[in-house]
Amino acid sequence: MDGFDSAVQCVTVLYWVCDPQMIARGKNASDLFPAVVKNVACKNIEVKKLVYVYLVRYAEEQQDLALLSISTFQRGLKDPNQLIRASALRVLSSIRVTIIVPIMMLAIKEAASDMSPYVRKTAAHAIPKLYSLDPEQKDCLIEVIEKLLADKTTLVAGSVVMAFEEVCPERIDLIHKNYRKLCNLLIDVEEWGQVVIINMLTRYARTQFLNPNMNESLLEEGGGEKAFYGSDNDDDTDDEEDKEEKEKKKTEATAIVKRKPYVMDPDHRLLLRNTKPLLQSRNAAVVMAVAQLYFHLAPKAEVGVIAKALVRLMRSHSEVQYVVLQNVATMSIKRRGMFEPYLKSFYIRSTDPTQIKVLKLEVLTNLANETNISTILREFQTYIKSNDKDFVAATIQAIGRCATNIGEVRDTCLNGLVQLLSNRDELVVAESVVVIKKLLQMQPEQHSDIIKHMAKLTDNIQVPMARASILWLIGEYCEHVPKIAPDVLRKMAKTFTNEEDIVKLQIINLAAKLYLTNSKQTKLLTQYVLNLAKYDQNYDIRDRARFIRQLIVPTDKSGALSKYAKKLFLALKPAPVLESPFKDRDHFQLGSLSHLLNAKAGGYQVLPDWPEAAPDPSVRNVEVITLLERVTTLTSVPEWTKCSSREKRKEKKADKPFYSDSEGESGPTESADSASDTASGSESGSGSEESGSGSESEESNEESESASEEDEEEEGKKKKKNVEKIKARKPVPESERIAAIACLFTLAQHQTIHDCSPVFEKTLCSFLFLVDPAPSPSQVTPLNNFLSSSLVTDLEGLSLTDNVLSPTTIIPSGNLKTYELLHRITGEGLSVEYCFSRQPFSPDPHMVAVKIQFTNSATSEAKSLHVEDAKLQSGMRIKEFPEIEVLPAGETVSVVMGIDFCDSTQAANFQLCTHTRKFFVSIQPPVGELMMPIFMTENEFKKEQGQLMGMNEITEKLTLEEKCQGEHAVVQRVTTAANLSRVPCGSDKECRFAGKTVTSGSLVLVSVVTKEDGAAQLTVNCEKMVIGTMLVKDILQALTQ
């Protein structure tokens, strides 16, 4: 490729070399490896991506040449383009040379911390490759897996769980803290990731939760054994051990009845609830995974929901049908009633392949009962006329199984099979003979005519298995046909040498039985047959003849066994049990390759048994600082707020100077005082008792001009010192201020001010302490001024009376959660965090206000902070924040930008730029931040709710925790999860909330009705069903955790 003078020609050739169809056809392009590797350092992104695709395919074959490009791959790991970084890691992990294991390990660790979820996903894919190359790296890889399991991105979840399954499936402890997150993310994960996660969670649940059908299964087992063995006639013959066993079983049955009713673990319910919607997935593997999860984990009453989804999959391709029917055949043995309503869906079509027909027959046989057997037998009669001989044989076997399982139709089935004996097709007759033989063993004395009829078929039937079955029947029940049996033996003796081995063995058995029951007529025939068998080519036949001769023909050398020959040959034999070949397959996990093959495949993880005692559920708890705890911390009352009057506070200030040596300990309190003093001094100099500038202005009228200048110099120094103190003071985060306001309004809403004035006074003082009206000079945006004015407006809404707060003053409360946008390591000292301020974005009310906080932890200043290259989904818009010219080292600055998410939770991707670097970042909003609160009366709420019924209404039942059973807690958690306002309600058992989406103004109504014992019902009415569905999930999570 050295001769190509343009990137276009190079790309054209690489497209040809890397064509997947060419690789799939087996065309080898490895000879071009040296020429392709030279282009790995090409600056053209398209060329580089194609080279990486080629290297992934051929790096393992040309390891030595690939090692020469490792330095280039390492540089690719630092490329700004996430596709190049991921491709470089993919190629690096495809070079299977042990010498570069440390390099691969380092690359995976760095990629696991990459800001791009696509690169982190590639890191998860590389983990199994490195583990297969060097299993000694397992401990280090487990650390990376643990880190990636904590990732909240849906793109990474499926890949890291796959890595977990490959490297350390036994480390269940890694799943504990991430269990609930995986359950909640499951609906948004890619389809193949959903399959992996569901299979893993199935095994996890079998080790962490109790069997939901435990009591029912034990009662059924106990009842069945008692009914089978516990007859009155056997009581006299039972020995003492049997009686002890019976008493023990009775005691166990009594204990089971007295056992407390089963209560499902909330996490168990969470898994079932979050996987149920996936039954509607378009991917058959996802539906099958959910079906097996419900079969193995769900209560018996809830498993039926999977039947309809599985029946839907039977309209897919034949390969999918085959796998689905294999699993349905296993399920239908234990859960027959689940598929009975869909019986006609298993009827066989003429276009079905043979293997599909056989499996459908298996399912129909499993579903057969006294109610539907007549319909099924009519179907079987039609199937027997098919031209597919294997299918006809399977149908005859299915008829035999139906006759065995359902005694009422046994005679009908037997008569139908006898009619098939006159069929022209020899295979049909042969299969009928085999099945009839098994059925006759159940009641031979009632069907001697059938045995006679079958004896006449020996002249026509040539199928060895059928001839052997007829001979066995005649020999076993020769007493019922004493005249026909010797004649059959005579005919068989004539053709003995030409028969198949299986038929010869049955001829010998027939001769022995007739010799023991009718030796006068058959003695010579028996000796003749034994002599023929003595010289047969098959050693089994020779041995059988020698053994039988010594057993039935007594001689001087005969042993003691000859006395018992009759008992040995003519003993009563149990009737055969016709069982389904899928009976014991459920010990394999459904949907697995092992279940399909009915043998343990490589890499199969055994499905654990249910635990006898419930493990500790607290291992899945994740420590989360609640809003109440956070506000309690924020609203700790400073020392100066304990003074009851302005005079006492002034006296206290006189005792202790404003700026003391111990200001490091009480910095926030003194800073708050200094800020208020500075502000009051700048506003007026005559109306404040605490204003130093005011008192000095009064004294200046009496003093001389020189003294006034000296005072002004001292005052200037003091003000300068105040500004330095305020500037050095750590600013209070905006989210903390909003949380304090939320606590204040919630307190005013749920208690009257008059009854709790001390509490309210403390909270109000703490609130005043948090609100800093003087922004630091480093803040280059008027956000703090805007916030202060809004806080004043909010405070004016408070009604400090004995009456409950009016609806107009009820605002949504919630703690503002901060998200990391850029880590300080990735940003080379620049860290960026963001939060959704829940304030109107003044330039455009249809945009969500996002507050971004920059912190420069580097030693040098950052310049020209701005946004570039916004990559947004269709309909989304972004309003950039003003460029920050300089951010000194150690300083923090906050700005506000607006984003129109277009009522979706898709991320807004853009570049965050400095004067030297560009960082790819993304902001993804929770669904609750896409809304803004609106005021509604109770009647308006009911009216709008009545118009949003049907598909626009989603209702879920839940159980509230003890901490969340109060009205205050419910309001707090709902408004934390979504930016909604409280709607007044006349009932204390119901909480209502209202809001609308920021972009389209679609109405969102939420109501929570509490009941006894912590039960509750959540109802969400929304014009946009997708928004409503996601909001239900978030509010449920907020109320149940």
Give the structure's gist in a few sentences.
The chain is an alpha+beta fold. Helix content is 52%, strand content 10%.
Write a structural description.
With 1041 residues, this protein is α+β, with helices and mostly antiparallel strands. It is 52% helix and 10% strand. Strands 10, 11, 12, 13, 14 and 15 form a six-stranded antiparallel sheet that branches. A five-stranded antiparallel sheet has the order 1-2-3-7-5, covered by helices on one side. It has a four-stranded antiparallel sheet with strand order 6-4-8-9, with no helix packed on it. Helix 30 runs parallel beside helix 32 (539-552). The longest helix has 24 residues, at 705-728. It is elongated and about 145 Å long. The model is unreliable at 1-6, 218-238, 625-708 and 742-814 (pLDDT under 50). Residues 761-906 form the AP-3 complex subunit beta C-terminal domain. Residues 644-658 have a biased composition (Basic and acidic residues). This is AP-3 complex subunit beta. It is a peripheral membrane protein. Residues 232-244, 696-714 have a biased composition (Acidic residues).
